[in-house]
């Protein structure tokens, strides 16, 4: 992609306004906390303290909107506390330019490294630097600076208290994550009716798994319906795939395929009903037609033995989903002799082992998280780390913006470094898109707010009210697009500083010029010191191939020793393969917007190679769907297949990294021997599918 096209695409992305479901109640709660803090500060301490404390409440409320599974009060307190420390240290050094510049470099560098701990930590840290640049201009002594810091933290405390006292849809994020996972399974079941080898995006399941981790305090309060459906959804997916795939399930056409389509449609409706119930906290309302389809007594006479076992397992798992969401009712879809069905096969294999933890997945508390976050940051201080490059880049750009703001005769030069630190991200597309959006939003917001200030001359309290209104607009619209939110943020800053007359003399041109300067510095910094994803695509693809090979090998090894170590090995290998796949997809998406040459992996080759590895993982999943019971006889040849898969994919991954087309001669010999040693048609077909997918990968890479 050329630079001109990349700039055009990122600009369009930054200015895009999306239609999203708004949360007016949560936005009003955040604005209420801000109004309480500003009103109290104005009444007892004056406009200067009100401005700094308002920034604390404002930022704390933003923290509660982040996509994080931690308790919202914890996020508000962490944001308020870290901002208080930042602004106090900033004031202590603010009178000495060189000392403050050193602190700014250190603080910005640490905020860049904070992205290693996750996007929420990175955003809070970046916001702390940006707000510090504004608030250090407000106090007049060390004592008042300490008072300002206390009030900033008090703003975070107020927002945290309001989250506790005025709960709005508690556990809403976790409910949505789990419901999205079940809805994704439902959509997958419906797509399998028309495309028996349809692909499945594992992101919803991974998101639900992340949401399921809770702190000890959350574990005591979590609703019962959020405990088990995710694990069941994980087990349903391979059953759906094995039931639909004509290579190991029902034939592509005929009565068996018609019955499979009925079962898949019914499964989709049941999963949708469960997703709706979880999302809204309501009882499950199952469609009678879907329940009837799952209870059909002649399924066993139509389907062959393996497909019938999969159908029984699907009905049992769907029944477990409904029972987990609410107590079992008469409309439960679980088939059994009492309702005219066939009794579930007691020898049906356990398709996936439960999570290693017996109870809830645990999430460390904030205090215990601190050393983990520091360890993650230290791990990124190494050559070639994109996080380290981001930290160095954002530090240099912010310092340059601060110095230019001091030199230029525009006054209030913090607008330039504030814009830089807020728009810069570790990847190209977000940095450039946010730079354009920041400039456009600031242009509109500053123009509107300054026009109001200069024409209406609002007093202190009216300016405070306008600031709260602007904040409410930001909270309400922040998920619709960065440009829209920046209109409200720019207006908020103008009105807030206007309470005490700070910055009123600064013109729209000055503010917009400094914001444009900050955005241009951010874009120039990335162009001069980039961290392109494109050259790393082959490494990401190799990681996915190796992880998928370990997953397939773990599944095959279970056939060789059914009574051996239980499924956590398979489960852990599956999770690693999913993580590698998502890392590949994210990297491919970022690389698609970069203005650099493909360097050995074209877009077409990347798409074909990704499809091949996805097919390899699907073939391994079909094997997992029919894992033998612990008492089943072992398949000795499976041990050789497992070892061959592991070694072949490791060598193949190395070949991908070295820009060679991998060869599978040793694995081909193993699969040929497997065909003669194994009698089960499923196992023979699955091994051939694995090899065919790897051959497709070699073809895709050889053609590049």
TrEMBL record:
It holds the Pfam family FUSC_2. The keyword Transmembrane helix applies. Keywords: Cell membrane, Membrane, Transmembrane, Transmembrane helix. The keyword Methyltransferase does not apply. InterPro entries: Memb_transporter_dom. Residues 324-359 are annotated as: Disordered. It is a multi-pass membrane protein. Residues 402-524 form the Integral membrane bound transporter domain. It is found in: Cell membrane. Residues 335-359 have a biased composition (Low complexity). The chain crosses the membrane at residues 123-143, 149-168, 391-415, 435-453, 460-477, 483-500, 512-532. Belongs to the YccS/YhfK family. This is FUSC family protein.
């Amino acid at each position: 992609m050329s630079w001109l096209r990349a700039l055009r695409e990122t600009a369009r992305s930054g200015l895009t306004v999306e239609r999203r479901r708004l949360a007016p109640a949560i936005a009003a709660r955040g604005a209420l906390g801000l109004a309480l803090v500003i009103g109290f500060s104005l009444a007892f301490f004056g406009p200067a303290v009100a401005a700094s404390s308002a920034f604390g409440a404002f930022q704390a409320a933003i923290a509660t909107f982040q996509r994080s599974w931690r308790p919202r009060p914890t996020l508000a307190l962490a944001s308020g506390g870290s901002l208080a420390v930042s602004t106090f240290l900033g004031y202590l050094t603010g009178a000495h330019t060189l000392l403050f510049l050193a602190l700014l470099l250190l603080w910005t560098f640490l905020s860049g490294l904070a992205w290693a701990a996750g996007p929420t930590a990175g955003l809070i840290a970046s916001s702390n630097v940006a707000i510090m640049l504004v608030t250090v201009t407000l106090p007049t002594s060390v004592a008042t600076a300490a008072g300002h810091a206390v009030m900033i933290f008090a703003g975070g405390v107020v927002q945290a208290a309001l989250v506790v006292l005025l709960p709005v849809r508690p556990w809403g994020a976790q409910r949505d994550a789990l419901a999205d996972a079940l809805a994704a399974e439902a959509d997958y079941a419906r797509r399998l009716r028309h495309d028996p080898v349809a692909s499945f995006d594992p992101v919803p399941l991974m998101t639900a798994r992340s949401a399921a981790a809770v702190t000890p305090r959350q574990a005591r309060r979590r609703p019962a319906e959020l405990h088990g459906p995710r694990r069941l959804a994980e087990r349903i997916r391979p059953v759906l795939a094995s039931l639909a795939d004509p290579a190991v399930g029902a034939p592509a056409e005929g009565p068996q395929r018609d019955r499979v389509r009925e079962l898949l449609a019914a499964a989709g409706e049941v999963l949708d009903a469960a997703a709706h119930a979880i999302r809204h906290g309501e009882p499950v309302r199952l469609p009678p037609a879907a329940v009837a389809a799952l209870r059909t007594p002649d399924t066993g006479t139509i389907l062959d033995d393996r497909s019938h076992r999969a159908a029984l397992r699907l009905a049992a798992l769907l029944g477990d989903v409904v029972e987990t969401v609410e107590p079992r009712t008469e409309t439960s879809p679980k088939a059994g002799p009492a309702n005219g069905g066939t009794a579930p096969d007691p020898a049906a294999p356990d398709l996936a082992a439960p999570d290693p933890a017996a109870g809830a997945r645990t999430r460390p508390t904030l205090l215990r998280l601190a050393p983990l976050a520091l360890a993650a940051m230290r791990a990124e201080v190494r050559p070639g780390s994109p996080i380290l490059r981001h930290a160095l880049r954002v530090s240099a750009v912010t310092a340059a913006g601060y110095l230019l703001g001091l030199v230029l005769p525009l006054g209030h030069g913090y607008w330039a470094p504030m814009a830089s630190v807020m728009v810069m991200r570790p990847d190209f597309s977000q940095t450039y898109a946010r730079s354009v959006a920041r400039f456009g939003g600031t242009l509109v917001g500053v123009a509107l707010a300054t026009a109001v200030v200069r024409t209406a001359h609002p007093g202190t309290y009216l300016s405070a009210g306008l600031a709260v209104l602007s904040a409410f607009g930001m909270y309400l619209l922040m998920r619709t697009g960065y440009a829209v939110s920046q209109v409200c943020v720019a207006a908020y800053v103008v009105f807030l500083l206007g309470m005490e007359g700070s910055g009123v003399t600064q013109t729209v041109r000055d503010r917009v010029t400094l914001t444009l300067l900050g955005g241009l510095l951010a874009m120039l910094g990335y162009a001069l010191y980039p961290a392109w994803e494109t050259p790393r695509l082959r490494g990401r693809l190799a990681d996915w191939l190796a992880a998928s090979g370990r997953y397939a090998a773990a599944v095959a090894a279970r056939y060789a020793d059914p009574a051996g170590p239980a499924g956590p090995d398979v489960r852990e290998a599956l999770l690693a393969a999913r993580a590698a796949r998502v890392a590949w997809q994210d990297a491919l998406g970022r690389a698609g917007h970069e203005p650099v040459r493909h360097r050995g992996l074209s877009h077409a080759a990347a798409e074909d190679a990704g499809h091949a590895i996805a097919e390899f993982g699907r073939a391994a999943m079909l094997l997992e769907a029919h894992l033998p019971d612990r008492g089943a006889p072992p398949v000795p040849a499976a041990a050789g297949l497992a070892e061959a898969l592991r070694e072949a994919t490791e060598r193949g991954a190395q070949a991908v990294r070295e820009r060679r087309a991998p060869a599978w001669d040793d694995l081909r010999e193993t699969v040929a021997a497997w065909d003669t040693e194994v009698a089960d048609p499923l196992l023979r077909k699955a091994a051939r599918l694995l090899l065919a997918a790897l051959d497709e990968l070699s073809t895709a890479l050889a053609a590049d």
